[in-house]
Design goal:
The protein has a single domain, classed as 3-Layer(bba) Sandwich (FAD/NAD(P)-binding domain), CATH 3.50.50. The strands form 4 sheets. Strands 5, 6, 7, 14, 15, 16, 17, 18 and 19 form a 9-stranded mixed β-sheet that branches. It is about 25% helix and about 25% strand. Helix 1 packs parallel to helix 5. The chain is of the alpha+beta class. It has 10 helices and 21 strands. Bound molecules: flavin-adenine dinucleotide (FAD). The site of flavin-adenine dinucleotide has 39 residues, from helix 1, strand 3, strand 14 and strand 19.
């Protein structure tokens, strides 16, 4: 156990901010430094929305973390006095009958066994209750009413305000901050302007920028670029809940998922695919053929959305680890340095539980969930990459069901 003292948190996404708030509550003196304003426009945690769900096939830990997070998202809505979490349900459909070993089947079976009340959905139900879907293509699936989406960029702004109010010092727009070492020990953070901040511990929560800052991690985690499209249909009402909840369309095999129209009438569609390996500071470029790929999918799945005008696109970075698990641990080679990164494209939903997980790691406190995110070696049997690791509960196709 560590006695509370001073800590520098580098990065103000959902990992860094929740850790800062929790550590402050435990008595630490906390300074959080970000390279940008908060929310940082290029951070993974920004954007208009993120899926919140408990559906994780037979993955008991992430199911339990999802259940607890959903409970806390509801409490945060009450605490904030406005709904940033929208519990509109998660509709999971497949072109095939649900089969054991598939994400849809296994999530349905596991959650039902845990007492969740899911509604199995047939083409007839799809036609009647969810008319934007192509019910001739999608055969089987279910609706989980406990799930939905969260206004992620606005949550980050809220958390930054809460951190400040709790006494966390937040320094924004710091020029190129990076960890600072005295020998192997990490003793602080320095910037390209020559500033130096010192503390007893440094928590690096820099998302996809982490492997650039710490090259010794480049073998186990890397940034992958993923695309997001925001459509603006002229009449958004067919794309609003309850007929159009958050959805996954054969997501375990294809990676397609999306959201109902938000208050501005924007319908977000995205693909949780293998992505492209990039450097976090590279320009964010959209592949030329990407819009047509989206339109082909929409024509097959949501014909009324297929020709909707495009409002905007976004290229967002996952920090993928080689095995798809987060990376939250003390750096064994650098005393004083703790890493909280490797989000692998699915961490935002867990924002309400991440602060405790990270703070327990910082303080060397026992926590039933931290073992999975520990420092680990990449070996021949577990080095297939985040996407491929999910195939053992999935299919042989190279996309995962996390998002
Ligand atoms: C396209 C896309 C869709 C997603 N959809 C979902 C979803 O539906 N549901 C879900 O649960 N999750 C989703 N995720 C994943 C989720 O967004 C991430 O898991 C989560 O936001 C990661 O948070 P983070 O704090 O690790 O990183 P980030 O949010 O990226 O934050 C990192 C912060 O570190 C700062 N930083 C970087 N380098 C430095 C430096 N040198 N000095 C100072 N500050 C620095 C950055 O400015 C940034 O503010 C999605 C991710 C993407 C990219």
């Amino acid at each position: 156990m560590t006695e509370p003292s001073t800590i520098l948190v580098l990065g103000g996404g959902c990992f860094g901010l929740t850790a800062a708030i929790e550590l402050r509550a435990r008595g630490w003196q906390v300074t959080l430094i970000d390279q940008g304003p908060l929310p940082q426009p290029d951070a993974a945690s920004t954007d208009i929305s993120k899926v919140v769900r408990m559906d994780y096939a037979q993955d008991e830990q992430h199911t339990a973390m999802g259940e607890l997070s959903i409970q806390r998202w509801r409490e945060w809505n009450t605490h904030w006095g406005e709904d940033l979490y929208h519990e509109v349900g998660f509709l999971v459909m497949s072109r095939h009958s649900l089969q054991q070993g598939g994400f849809e089947h296994d999530s349905h079976a596991f959650l039902t066994q845990r007492g969740q009340h899911l509604r199995r959905t047939s083409p007839e139900i799809l036609r009647e209750l969810h008319p934007a879907w192509n019910h001739t293509a999608y055969k089987d699936g279910y609706l989980n009413p406990a799930g939905g989406w969260v206004e992620s960029g606005r949550v980050i702004a809220r958390l930054a305000a809460e951190a400040r109010a709790a006494g966390v010092e937040i320094i924004e727009n710091a020029p190129q901050p990076r960890p600072y070492f005295a020998g192997a020990r990490c003793t602080g953070i320095t910037s390209s302007a020559g500033q130096i901040w010192q503390a007893d511990a440094v928590l690096l929560a820099t998302g996809a920028w982490t492997p650039t800052l710490l090259p010794h991690l480049q073998d186990v985690m890397w940034a992958t670029a993923q695309t997001v499209f925001h459509f603006q249909p002229q009449a958004p009402s067919p794309f609003t809940p309850p007929q159009f909840p958050v959805w996954g369309a054969d997501i375990g095999r294809t990676g397609w998922y999306g959201f109902p129209a938000n208050a501005a009438g924007l319908v977000k569609v995205a693909n949780h695919g293998p992505g492209r390996r990039v450097n976090a500071s590279d320009p964010r470029t959209l592949p030329a053929e990407e819009e047509e790929r989206y339109r082909i999918f929409l024509r097959e799945t949501f014909p009324p959305l297929a020709e909707a005008p495009l409002h905007s696109t976004r290229v967002c970075l996952y920090c993928d680890t080689f095995d798809g698990a987060f990376w939250i641990d003390h750096d064994p080679a650098h005393p004083g340095l703790i890493i909280a990164a490797g989000d692998s494209g699915h961490a935002f939903k867990f924002t309400p539980v991440m602060g405790e997980i990270i703070a327990d790691v910082v303080e060397h406190k026992p926590n039933p969930w931290t073992w999975r995110y520990r420092w680990r070696e990449k070996t021949a049997t577990n080095s297939d990459g985040a996407r491929a690791t999910m195939t053992h509960i999935q299919s042989t196709e190279p996309t995962a069901h996390q998002l």
